[in-house]
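Troubleshooting log. The previous structure file for this entry was overwritten by mistake, so regenerating from the original sequence record. Sequence copied from the archived sheet and checked twice against the printout by T.R.
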Amino acid sequence: MFREMRRKRQLLSTKESVAILERMTNGTLALHGDDGYPYAVPVSYVYADGKIYFHSAMKGHKVDAISRNDKISFCVVEQDDIKPSEFTTYFRSVIVFGKARILTDEGEKRVALGLLADKYSHGEAGMEAEIAKGFNHLLMVEITVEHMTGKESIELIKERNDCS
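Regenerated output below.
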């Protein structure tokens, strides 16, 4: 169903890909937008138990696109180190394909929002009050990951192999 990556030597393991998703704080969500145009938007997210969660306003382009077509792609870039003298970029990134679902169950929504808030507030005092204040004014979206690939530049692989 999903294409195999051509440059298999550059493929990151699932464990490395998950670690990148867990570490990073934003990614680009790609949706089927209006009039057949792709719609890509940066979002803050949390990855937990094989799913990605992010929040959204109650209405807007993202919500309309997800309601029309739940298939998404999500990209996170961990490293993007430009090497002008080498005419290349040392990169590490992860691409996810999956299905998005707006959480309608209050319990699911609360758990997802708690995960997101904890990632960004690091348990800061007042987190629960902030969640309560905004809870009825936002949506939580869950992405079920169906396929994931991580990739790094060949230069990073060579660099690592030279050090071992």
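The radius of gyration is 18 Å. Archived copy saved in two places this time.
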